[in-house]
Specification:
- The chain has 361 residues and is of the alpha+beta class.
- The protein folds into 2 domains: 111 residues, Rieske [2Fe-2S] iron-sulphur domain (Rieske Iron-sulfur Protein); 185 residues, Naphthalene 1,2-dioxygenase Alpha Subunit, Chain A, domain 1.
- It is built from 8 helices and 19 strands.
- Helix 4 crosses helix 7.
- It starts with 18 loop residues before the first helix and ends with a helix.
């Protein structure tokens, strides 16, 4: 089924996506194939593949796309991603992460080199026109923001342009010092449509009304949204008494009191940089009104961990959940159809809705 959505390019006149977008199972199913199948997704960091000739099997957006993939680090230290499905009979090839010199399917013994190419297969000596290119493991594109790994099944856009945009402001940070903190990472299950969660993230309009603690830290008047093609940035400024980034002299924001850089990447990834490190938020649709939000925490300066805009993240998340779940109930109303955008505060939401309409159409 084809779904047509139109978002006026002029935010001063534009209306939001209609309630039908959030209520329709058909639209939800189309989003999976037309947007998420072609999205870029964060997989993890390079510690998943610490040495040459190591592998890491995973399911991309498990319980939604659930595509079986495997990351591989061959002897040349590059990072590659392949389908983890044997082209012979569809068995899962790699079951466990670790050191491997080649990949072997346990079902019938087909082997692959670490570059994904066919190596050998028992009982196929008399097979004609074999092997063919389709007998190799299908390779998928990989992008790296060292040490972070991203993968796409069929990308809609050039991800390197997004990474280069991010590096303009956060490239000075010592990513090699960032340490994954499992004890500070957490999954949240939210009773809402996944896009409503993103809508909420993409504007600071609600901060004075919903987040008392965060509002006391950020300067609402100077809160800024910067739009790019497939990502956007919200900059949280504060006063000198709060924790801020120690920006290099040549930095684009040098001399400003920046408490947080909030990057959103279409359609469902958030990278929140604070003076103490990074909180990655991945929004995973589970159903029409069920969403899993994974908070993954990387720390490089523990002395700043409980200070400034990056403090009390769990409290802020709970406050967001409360509001977003109410909105999810509200858009089910027979008497709600569409709203308007604040031209000064909801540029990010307008940008998001415009991209959704573009790719669904």
């Amino acid at each position: 089924m084809t779904h047509k959505f139109t978002i006026n390019k002029n935010i001063h006149e534009a209306e939001t996506l209609p309630a039908h977008f959030y209520r329709s199972q058909d639209v939800f199913d189309s989003i999976k194939e037309d947007i998420f199948l072609r999205s870029w997704q964060w997989v993890g960091d390079t510690q998943l593949l610490p040495f040459a000739e190591t592998v890491y099997p995973f399911y991309l957006l498990d319980n939604y796309l659930s595509e079986p993939l495997v990351l591989v680090r061959p002897s040349d230290q590059s990072i590659k991603c392949f389908s983890n499905v044997c082209p012979h009979r569809g068995n899962i090839v790699v079951l466990n992460p670790g050191k491997q010199k080649n990949l072997q399917c346990i079902y019938h013994g087909r082997r692959f080199n670490l570059d994904g190419t066919f190596k050998s297969m028992p009982e196929f000596d008399t097979a004609e026109n074999f092997p063919r290119p389709c007998d190799n493991l299908h390779e998928f594109p990989v992008a790296i923001l060292d040490p972070f790994i991203f993968v796409s099944l069929d990308p809609l856009f050039d991800f390197n342009s997004v990474l280069n945009t991010m590096k303009e402001r956060i490239g000075f940070l010592p990513f090699h010092q960032f340490k994954l903190r499992q004890d500070l990472s957490k999954d949240y299950h939210v009773n809402c449509h996944w896009a409503l969660y993103c809508d909420n993230y993409l504007e600071g309009f609600h901060i004075p009304f919903v987040h008392d603690d965060l509002n006391s830290v950020l300067d609402y008047g100077d809160y800024t949204t910067v739009l790019y093609d497939h990502c956007n940035l919200q900059i949280g400024y504060t006063n000198a008494s709060e924790e801020v980034f120690d920006l290099p002299k040549e930095h684009i924001d040098s001399g400003k009191q920046v408490a947080a850089y909030y990057y959103w990447i279409f359609p469902n990834m958030m990278f929140n940089f604070y003076p103490w490190g990074l909180s990655i938020n991945i929004v995973k649709p589970l159903g029409l009104n069920k969403t899993k939000v994974s908070f993954i925490t990387y720390v490089y300066d523990e002395t700043k961990l409980d200070k400034g805009a990056g403090a009390l993240l769990d409290k802020v998340e709970r406050e967001d959940e409360f509001v977003v779940e109410l909105v999810n109930k509200g858009v089910q109303s027979r008497f709600y159809n569409t709203g308007r955008f604040s031209p000064t505060r909801e540029q990010g939401v307008h940008h998001f809705h415009s991209l959704l309409a573009k790719y669904l159409n």
